[in-house]
Amino acid sequence: MQRRLWCALAILCCSVVCSFAAPDKPKDVDRKEKLVVILLDGFRWDYVDQQKDKESLPGFRLLHKEGVRAKWVNPIFPSLSYASWTTLSTGLYAENHNIIGNYFHDSYRKETFELFNRTLTSNQRWWQDVEPIWTTATRKGRKVGTFLWARSDIPVRGILPHQAQGFQLTKGATSLGANLDKTIKMIKSEGYDLVMVYNEHIDNKGHQFGPTSPELMIALQEVDAELYKFLKKLDDTDLDETVNVMIVSDHGMTSGTPHSGAEYVEIDDYLDMDDVSYVIDRAAVAAVAPLPGKADKVYKQLKQMRGVDVYRRDDIPDNYYYKNGRYVQEILVCAKHGFVISGADSPKQIPRDPSTPRPMIWGGLHGYDNTHPDMRTIFMAMGPSFKKHYQGEPIDLVDIYQIYAHVLDLEPQPHNGSWSRVRSYLTNSASFSKVLSWNPILMTLLILLRYFI
Fold this sequence. Notes:
Layout: H1 2-21, E1 34-40, H2 47-50, H3 58-66, E2 68-70, E3 73-74, H4 81-90, H5 94-97, E4 103-106, E5 111-114, H6 118-121, H7 133-139, E6 144-147, H8 174-189, E7 194-199, H9 201-209, H10 214-236, E8 243-248, E9 254-255, E10 263-266, E11 276-280, E12 285-290, H11 295-302, E13 308-312, E14 331-335, E15 339-342, E16 349-350, E17 364-365, E18 379-382, E19 390-392, E20 395-396, H12 401-408, H13 440-452
Parallel strand pairs: 1-7, 1-8, 2-19, 3-20, 6-7, 10-15, 11-16
Antiparallel strand pairs: 2-18, 4-5, 8-18, 9-17, 11-12, 12-14, 13-14
Helix pairs in contact: 1-13, 3-10, 8-10, 9-10
Protein name: Ectonucleotide pyrophosphatase/phosphodiesterase family member 6
Organism: Daphnia magna
InterPro entries: Alkaline_phosphatase_core_sf, Phosphodiest/P_Trfase
């Protein structure tokens, strides 16, 4: 009964938001522009500029010349993959879409979400809170395909894209090239309107070797080669006249090696594991679930830990847009810049790193708060909807979703983005000047209702 009441109130509030903030209807109802979104995981905002040879990276240089780019994109908190992928797909902060990290736990249902466990991440219940862009587009009659993008292979309210491939581990840039070749065929011959492609090659090398390593630069060149071939094929087939291409990423990367100055701190040096149910994640951020009656003791112990900020749930900074998430635990430990949380050597640690060597050293890592410069990421685009040779001011990750909706002539779902930050990138933003977004007062009302119902 309570759940039904919550749903009814949420729908009512969303209806009020829609009535005040619905976008104007574009005049051209037969708009034929297509959209390809390429998500390059772990692409730090300054990677292209690190290349000293200005003739290198012809794909990205072509995008800069013929399209638009933001100076950088501010990430969400936490700057972790699954949370950020869901923000890119919905325009919502983590506390509003409830995919709050790569690892989290539902204490009520005793269910866990784990990055590399496809069975656990495919639990349909995680994905029914909000509607991603591929669901909206499919529901509105667009033909949609996805390659390796989050859990786009899980139905949302019974709807799946026409071709849906969810996240699974891949290596190298060749899979990107193969999927971009398929994308050309899908758009040219099979009538697809939206294709979303994911690749993790740059992120993998960043984690393994670090963000300033030669190996990372080689990975960047390999991804660029596939991107350049794709852009040239669009041009050779005249698809560039109707196809818009957006290059996005989820977060940046910072160095994790002791040589770079990173300092590792063992969480179980400051924690009696007999006092907790579990510790979720590590590196940049860890969530701690104390046993009943142990919260004060655990909090005081963790407050002695160097190089971190420790928060009770209610004290988590508001500008993280995190603490109202459904699966947030009682205590949150956030590593300061230059520090790395080493996970507990215990079965209560999720995930559990190898017992040797201790600590496990990362070449590069992410997840830090959204003020860390190394967590900044990218936005680039080209095509008939975008200006040429234009660099705009920084935008936020939550802003990107509404651009998909604009290009595809779709009414967006309620989101946290700001139209004023992105409209300058577009050739025609007038028809979308009233963007559908969460009214802050109604958002607060919804959050409060969840606790009182």
